[in-house]
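User: Here's a structure from my thesis project, written as structure tokens. My advisor, Dr. K., wants to see whether a designed sequence matches the one we expressed. Can you design one independently, without my sequence as a hint?
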């Protein structure tokens, strides 16, 4: 609330400034980029709200470096062809750091713009390993484990718990989905499991009957999906309607309440990997209550990761003593931040240390961690 920085003798001036839409001249600007519309908005909106909740508290406590934090929110609909323009807009608007993007493809499309501008970008959900493993984007950080760890967990679970001998792997051809599927294929082959089908589908298709019939004819021990929940819900629904009880295993792009609401009864028994359960962490409990009080519902996917990312970005600026790019990067690598996941900092690649995945199963309409 910047009003406290002005003399109480000039309330009319303050009112006019804000009513005309002018921005305070001296703020820390936090960009928030992601899917705020479209099929994947259920991933992006919780991140916006996480940033709003964290910034509200930080501003009430005096801000960062004695300045109030201002949010710049831009929608990329999780589309790579839009993400570049989104990044350009945030850069031109003077963002100091960026929370986002949400999807791996959109993140990759935007990162070069941020790199050229000398700007740190931190995603709560972009899991493609190359975003950090390639070393191409030293300005990129994330508060979620990467797909290499996720695929390894999926394969270990399928082999050791489900005892699979042959699997069908489907993906959505995107950076996230295909990348995760390729990693899973490699791990399955290393484990001696036969991959009897590896095929990409076209997203947005109304009817996936052809691929479901093909999978059914091959009789795999499990279907592994690389991609997001809109396609997964359609494929699972068709599988179950055709009396296919084959285990279906998806990544964190499936572990969302929207998948369950769309697939309905057919979601039961579906497995998905996702961030470990942190429901007993005091900060996670408090953040969840803040969300419920503010928005009247349970937090959505990647809320905790976005809450953590917002804290990490703003803490890095505070510890660095400036918004200088190199100083922020050094701070993220060296200073711990209290988050819903505990105290975290980032390794030399930009991955959060100590953030892991778990396997979940839909039971009675809820994703429950599989012990």
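Assistant: Designed independently from the structure alone:
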């Amino acid at each position: 609330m910047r009003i406290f920085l002005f003399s109480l003798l000039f309330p009319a001036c303050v009112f006019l400034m804000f009513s005309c839409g002018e921005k305070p001249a001296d703020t820390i600007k936090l960009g928030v980029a992601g899917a705020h519309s479209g099929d994947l908005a259920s991933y992006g909106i919780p991140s916006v709200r996480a940033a709003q909740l964290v910034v509200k508290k930080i501003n009430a406590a005096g801000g960062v470096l004695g300045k109030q934090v201002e949010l710049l929110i831009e929608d990329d609909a999780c589309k790579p062809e839009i993400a570049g323009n989104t990044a350009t807009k945030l850069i031109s608007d003077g963002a100091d750091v960026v929370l986002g993007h949400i999807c791996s493809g959109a993140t990759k499309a935007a990162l070069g713009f941020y790199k050229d501008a000398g700007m740190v970008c931190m995603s709560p959900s972009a899991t493609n390993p190359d975003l950090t493993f390639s070393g191409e984007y030293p300005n990129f950080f994330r508060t979620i484990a990467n797909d290499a760890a996720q695929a390894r967990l999926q394969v270990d679970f399928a082999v050791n718990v489900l005892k699979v001998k042959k699997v069908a792997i489907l993906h959505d051809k995107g950076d996230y989905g295909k990348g995760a599927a390729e990693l899973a294929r490699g791990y399955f082959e290393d484990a001696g499991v036969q991959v009897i089908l590896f095929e990409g589908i076209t997203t947005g298709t109304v009817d996936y009957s052809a691929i479901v019939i093909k999978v059914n004819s091959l009789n795999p021990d499990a279907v592994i999906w690389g991609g997001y929940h809109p396609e997964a819900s359609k494929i699972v629904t068709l599988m179950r309607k055709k009396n296919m009880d084959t285990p279906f295993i998806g990544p964190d792009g499936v572990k969302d309440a929207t998948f369950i609401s769309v697939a309905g009864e057919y979601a039961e028994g579906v497995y998905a990997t996702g961030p470990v359960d942190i429901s007993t962490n005091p900060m996670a409990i408090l953040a969840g209550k803040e969300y419920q009080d503010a928005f009247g519902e349970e937090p959505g996917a990647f809320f905790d990761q976005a809450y953590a990312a917002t804290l990490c970005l703003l803490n890095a600026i505070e510890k660095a003593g400036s918004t200088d790019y190199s100083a922020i990067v050094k701070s993220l690598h060296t200073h711990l931040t209290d988050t819903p996941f505990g105290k975290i900092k980032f390794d030399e690649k930009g991955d959060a240390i100590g953030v892991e995945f778990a396997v979940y199963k839909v039971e009675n309409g809820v994703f429950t961690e599989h012990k």
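When you compare it with your expressed construct, this may help: Residues 2-144+280-356 form a domain with the Rossmann fold fold (CATH 3.40.50.2300).
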